[in-house]
Design goal:
This protein has six helices and five strands. The chain has helices at about 10-25, 35-40, 60-70, 85-95, 105-130, 155-164, and strands at about 5, 25-30, 50, 75-80, 100.
């Protein structure tokens, strides 16, 4: 199952979100604030970020900007008690995939998380298929004589994308 990183300064809220997502079978990591978020995302293994907008010190909007500077494309949903359209627009302009106002219904959270992960996975798969149009076997690969004996590794890449 996918792994979700929850970044929120409210410990009770983090625990509640963790429980909701783990009940759905997701892996969950948490951070009590923005510190360390980008470095954790750069290590990989996170499929989705749930990011609080209002946190002491560095807020969620600056985390989105830092993610963009670091070229981190992990889909991010912003969670906030400030449900103004201006805040939502600013988050979307800085890379947020979705925006959820607190308090959050657990069923709604589960649906948005699942929909976002499915959408992102579909986009990655489509991009991978498009990229395959530019990929060629290495010089000397014996794939022309026997497609099952590809020795340059391209066959494994194609199978991995198909199984994605």
């Amino acid at each position: 199952m996918p792994d979700v990183l929850v970044i929120d300064d409210d410990e009770d809220f983090r625990l509640w979100v963790t429980t909701v997502l783990m009940d759905q079978g997701y892996g969950v990591s948490t951070l009590p604030g923005a510190e360390g978020a980008v470095s954790q995302l750069l290590r990989g293994g996170i499929d989705l970020v749930l990011l609080d907008y209002q946190m002491p010190g560095q807020d969620g909007l600056s985390v989105l900007r830092d993610m963009d500077k670091a070229r981190i494309s992990t889909p991010t949903i912003v969670l906030t008690s400030d449900n103004s359209q201006a805040v939502a627009v600013e988050c979307f302009r800085n890379g947020a995939i979705d925006f959820i106002a607190k308090p959050i219904d657990p069923d709604y959270l589960s649906i948005v998380v699942e929909r976002t992960l499915n959408s992102h996975a579909g986009t990655l798969k489509n991009m991978s298929y498009k990229a395959l149009g530019y990929v060629q076997h290495k010089k000397g690969c014996v794939h022309f004589d026997d497609p099952h004996s590809c020795d340059c590794g391209l066959k494994e890449v194609i199978i991995a994308i198909q199984d994605f």
